[in-house]
Protein backbone atom coordinates (compact mmCIF):
# COMPACT_ATOMS: atom_id res chain seq x y z
CA UNK A 1 0.00 0.00 0.00
CA UNK A 2 1.56 3.33 -1.03
CA UNK A 3 1.57 6.58 0.90
CA UNK A 4 -1.38 8.13 -0.91
CA UNK A 5 -3.61 5.04 -0.41
CA UNK A 6 -2.72 4.91 3.28
CA UNK A 7 -3.44 8.60 3.70
CA UNK A 8 -6.80 8.16 1.95
CA UNK A 9 -7.70 5.25 4.25
CA UNK A 10 -6.80 7.23 7.36
CA UNK A 11 -8.87 10.16 6.14
CA UNK A 12 -11.87 7.91 5.41
CA UNK A 13 -11.66 6.24 8.82
CA UNK A 14 -11.40 9.63 10.48
CA UNK A 15 -14.50 10.94 8.74
CA UNK A 16 -16.41 7.77 9.63
CA UNK A 17 -15.42 8.02 13.30
CA UNK A 18 -16.39 11.69 13.32
CA UNK A 19 -19.83 10.87 11.89
CA UNK A 20 -20.29 8.02 14.35
CA UNK A 21 -19.32 10.35 17.17
CA UNK A 22 -21.87 12.93 16.05
CA UNK A 23 -24.56 10.26 15.79
CA UNK A 24 -23.65 8.87 19.19
CA UNK A 25 -23.89 12.33 20.73
CA UNK A 26 -27.46 12.68 19.53
CA UNK A 27 -28.41 9.32 21.02
CA UNK A 28 -26.52 9.38 24.34
CA UNK A 29 -26.31 11.50 27.43
CA UNK A 30 -23.64 11.58 30.17
CA UNK A 31 -24.70 10.78 33.71
CA UNK A 32 -23.21 12.10 36.98
CA UNK A 33 -20.49 9.44 36.88
CA UNK A 34 -19.35 10.52 33.44
CA UNK A 35 -20.72 7.40 31.70
CA UNK A 36 -22.61 7.45 28.47
CA UNK A 37 -26.27 6.46 28.84
CA UNK A 38 -28.47 5.76 25.87
CA UNK A 39 -31.20 8.35 25.66
CA UNK A 40 -34.63 6.77 25.37
CA UNK A 41 -36.86 8.10 22.64
CA UNK A 42 -40.02 9.59 24.13
CA UNK A 43 -43.48 9.68 22.60
CA UNK A 44 -45.31 12.52 24.21
CA UNK A 45 -49.10 12.60 23.94
CA UNK A 46 -49.27 9.45 21.80
CA UNK A 47 -52.88 8.37 21.32
CA UNK A 48 -54.97 5.81 19.48
CA UNK A 49 -57.19 7.65 17.03
CA UNK A 50 -60.43 6.22 15.63
CA UNK A 51 -61.52 7.80 12.34
CA UNK A 52 -65.19 8.22 11.31
CA UNK A 53 -64.86 5.03 9.21
CA UNK A 54 -63.69 3.21 12.41
CA UNK A 55 -60.11 2.75 11.16
CA UNK A 56 -57.38 2.97 13.83
CA UNK A 57 -54.15 4.94 13.78
CA UNK A 58 -51.45 5.93 16.27
CA UNK A 59 -50.58 9.60 16.37
CA UNK A 60 -50.03 12.43 18.82
CA UNK A 61 -52.71 14.62 20.34
CA UNK A 62 -51.61 17.79 18.53
CA UNK A 63 -51.81 16.12 15.12
CA UNK A 64 -55.24 14.70 15.95
CA UNK A 65 -56.43 18.18 16.92
CA UNK A 66 -55.15 19.57 13.61
CA UNK A 67 -56.97 16.83 11.69
CA UNK A 68 -60.21 17.60 13.51
CA UNK A 69 -59.90 21.30 12.62
CA UNK A 70 -59.09 20.63 8.95
CA UNK A 71 -61.95 18.18 8.53
CA UNK A 72 -64.41 20.08 10.76
CA UNK A 73 -64.82 17.09 13.10
CA UNK A 74 -65.13 16.74 16.87
CA UNK A 75 -62.20 15.13 18.69
CA UNK A 76 -63.69 13.19 21.59
CA UNK A 77 -61.85 11.16 24.24
CA UNK A 78 -63.70 7.87 24.67
CA UNK A 79 -61.20 6.10 26.96
CA UNK A 80 -58.60 7.50 29.36
CA UNK A 81 -56.13 4.61 29.09
CA UNK A 82 -56.44 1.47 26.98
CA UNK A 83 -55.46 -1.54 29.10
CA UNK A 84 -53.44 -3.12 26.27
CA UNK A 85 -51.73 -0.18 24.57
CA UNK A 86 -51.52 2.09 27.65
CA UNK A 87 -52.60 4.96 25.43
CA UNK A 88 -55.69 7.17 25.62
CA UNK A 89 -58.27 6.56 22.89
CA UNK A 90 -59.84 9.40 20.90
CA UNK A 91 -62.43 9.38 18.16
CA UNK A 92 -63.19 11.82 15.34
CA UNK A 93 -66.93 12.44 15.08
CA UNK A 94 -69.26 14.47 12.90
CA UNK A 95 -71.45 17.03 14.64
CA UNK A 96 -74.50 14.76 14.41
CA UNK A 97 -72.57 11.79 15.82
CA UNK A 98 -71.22 13.95 18.63
CA UNK A 99 -74.67 15.23 19.67
CA UNK A 100 -76.13 11.72 19.47
CA UNK A 101 -73.31 10.45 21.69
CA UNK A 102 -73.84 13.22 24.24
CA UNK A 103 -77.59 12.55 24.32
CA UNK A 104 -76.95 8.85 24.84
CA UNK A 105 -74.55 9.56 27.72
CA UNK A 106 -77.07 11.87 29.42
CA UNK A 107 -79.78 9.21 29.15
CA UNK A 108 -77.47 6.55 30.57
CA UNK A 109 -76.54 8.77 33.53
CA UNK A 110 -80.20 9.61 34.16
CA UNK A 111 -81.22 5.95 34.08
CA UNK A 112 -78.29 5.00 36.33
CA UNK A 113 -79.28 7.61 38.93
CA UNK A 114 -82.91 6.54 38.75
CA UNK A 115 -82.16 2.81 38.99
CA UNK A 116 -79.82 3.40 41.91
CA UNK A 117 -82.59 5.07 43.94
CA UNK A 118 -85.44 2.65 43.06
CA UNK A 119 -85.60 -0.51 45.17
CA UNK A 120 -87.91 -2.46 42.88
CA UNK A 121 -91.30 -2.61 41.19
CA UNK A 122 -94.80 -3.15 42.56
CA UNK A 123 -97.97 -3.81 40.56
CA UNK A 124 -101.37 -2.52 41.71
CA UNK A 125 -104.55 -3.31 39.78
CA UNK A 126 -107.79 -1.38 40.32
CA UNK A 127 -111.24 -1.87 38.86
CA UNK A 128 -112.96 0.96 37.01
CA UNK A 129 -115.94 0.20 39.30
CA UNK A 130 -113.93 0.75 42.49
CA UNK A 131 -115.67 2.69 45.26
CA UNK A 132 -114.32 5.93 46.73
CA UNK A 133 -113.26 4.35 50.04
CA UNK A 134 -111.37 1.50 48.36
CA UNK A 135 -109.81 3.95 45.92
CA UNK A 136 -108.45 6.12 48.72
CA UNK A 137 -107.11 3.00 50.45
CA UNK A 138 -105.36 2.04 47.21
CA UNK A 139 -103.90 5.54 46.83
CA UNK A 140 -102.50 5.42 50.38
CA UNK A 141 -100.84 2.13 49.52
CA UNK A 142 -99.32 3.68 46.38
CA UNK A 143 -97.99 6.60 48.39
CA UNK A 144 -96.38 4.31 50.97
CA UNK A 145 -94.67 2.27 48.26
CA UNK A 146 -93.43 5.39 46.48
CA UNK A 147 -92.18 6.79 49.80
CA UNK A 148 -90.17 3.56 50.23
CA UNK A 149 -88.58 4.19 46.80
CA UNK A 150 -90.54 1.61 44.82
CA UNK A 151 -91.75 2.08 41.27
CA UNK A 152 -95.52 1.44 41.25
CA UNK A 153 -97.17 0.14 38.08
CA UNK A 154 -100.90 0.89 38.16
CA UNK A 155 -103.54 -0.80 36.00
CA UNK A 156 -107.12 0.48 36.01
CA UNK A 157 -109.09 -2.38 34.44
CA UNK A 158 -112.29 -1.50 32.57
CA UNK A 159 -115.36 -3.66 33.15
CA UNK A 160 -118.25 -1.95 31.38
CA UNK A 161 -119.18 0.34 28.48
CA UNK A 162 -118.31 3.47 30.50
CA UNK A 163 -114.93 2.10 31.58
CA UNK A 164 -112.91 4.75 29.69
CA UNK A 165 -114.71 7.65 31.41
CA UNK A 166 -114.55 6.03 34.85
CA UNK A 167 -110.88 5.07 34.45
CA UNK A 168 -109.97 8.65 33.52
CA UNK A 169 -111.76 10.00 36.62
CA UNK A 170 -109.91 7.49 38.81
CA UNK A 171 -106.66 8.51 37.19
CA UNK A 172 -107.33 12.20 37.86
CA UNK A 173 -108.03 11.43 41.52
CA UNK A 174 -104.80 9.45 41.85
CA UNK A 175 -102.83 12.18 40.09
CA UNK A 176 -104.11 14.89 42.43
CA UNK A 177 -103.26 12.83 45.50
CA UNK A 178 -99.74 11.69 44.60
CA UNK A 179 -98.42 14.58 42.53
CA UNK A 180 -96.41 16.06 45.42
CA UNK A 181 -94.32 12.93 46.01
CA UNK A 182 -94.16 11.04 42.72
CA UNK A 183 -93.86 11.45 38.99
CA UNK A 184 -96.44 9.85 36.69
CA UNK A 185 -95.02 8.48 33.45
CA UNK A 186 -96.13 6.37 30.47
CA UNK A 187 -99.86 6.94 30.78
CA UNK A 188 -101.59 4.99 28.01
CA UNK A 189 -104.68 2.98 27.19
CA UNK A 190 -104.17 -0.68 26.37
CA UNK A 191 -107.27 -2.68 25.50
CA UNK A 192 -109.89 -1.98 28.18
CA UNK A 193 -107.36 -0.81 30.74
CA UNK A 194 -105.64 2.47 31.55
CA UNK A 195 -102.03 2.07 32.66
CA UNK A 196 -99.34 4.30 34.10
CA UNK A 197 -96.36 4.24 36.44
CA UNK A 198 -95.47 6.18 39.56
CA UNK A 199 -91.80 7.00 40.11
CA UNK A 200 -90.33 8.32 43.36
CA UNK A 201 -88.99 11.86 43.35
CA UNK A 202 -86.60 13.40 45.85
CA UNK A 203 -87.98 16.01 48.20
CA UNK A 204 -91.33 17.74 47.98
CA UNK A 205 -90.30 20.48 45.56
CA UNK A 206 -91.60 18.57 42.54
CA UNK A 207 -95.24 19.63 42.97
CA UNK A 208 -97.02 19.54 39.67
CA UNK A 209 -94.38 17.39 38.01
CA UNK A 210 -96.60 14.35 37.76
CA UNK A 211 -99.33 16.18 35.90
CA UNK A 212 -96.91 17.64 33.37
CA UNK A 213 -95.10 14.40 32.69
CA UNK A 214 -98.28 12.40 32.40
CA UNK A 215 -99.68 14.78 29.80
CA UNK A 216 -96.43 14.59 27.83
CA UNK A 217 -96.56 10.78 27.87
CA UNK A 218 -100.23 10.28 26.92
CA UNK A 219 -99.22 8.90 23.54
CA UNK A 220 -96.50 6.58 24.83
CA UNK A 221 -97.78 3.12 23.98
CA UNK A 222 -95.00 1.03 25.51
CA UNK A 223 -95.90 -2.12 27.50
CA UNK A 224 -96.49 -1.89 31.24
UniProtKB/TrEMBL annotation:
<keyword id="KW-0396">Initiation factor</keyword>
<protein>
    <recommendedName>
        <fullName>Translation initiation factor IF-3, mitochondrial</fullName>
    </recommendedName>
</protein>
<dbReference type="GO" id="GO:0032790">
    <property type="term" value="P:ribosome disassembly"/>
</dbReference>
<dbReference type="GO" id="GO:0005739">
    <property type="term" value="C:mitochondrion"/>
</dbReference>
<feature type="region of interest" description="Disordered">
    <location>
        <begin position="200"/>
        <end position="224"/>
    </location>
</feature>
<keyword id="KW-0648">Protein biosynthesis</keyword>
<feature type="compositionally biased region" description="Low complexity">
    <location>
        <begin position="203"/>
        <end position="214"/>
    </location>
</feature>
<dbReference type="GO" id="GO:0043022">
    <property type="term" value="F:ribosome binding"/>
</dbReference>
<comment type="similarity">
    <text>Belongs to the IF-3 family.</text>
</comment>
<dbReference type="InterPro" id="IPR036788">
    <property type="entry name" value="T_IF-3_C_sf"/>
</dbReference>
<feature type="compositionally biased region" description="Polar residues">
    <location>
        <begin position="215"/>
        <end position="224"/>
    </location>
</feature>
<dbReference type="InterPro" id="IPR001288">
    <property type="entry name" value="Translation_initiation_fac_3"/>
</dbReference>
<dbReference type="GO" id="GO:0003743">
    <property type="term" value="F:translation initiation factor activity"/>
</dbReference>
<dbReference type="GO" id="GO:0070124">
    <property type="term" value="P:mitochondrial translational initiation"/>
</dbReference>
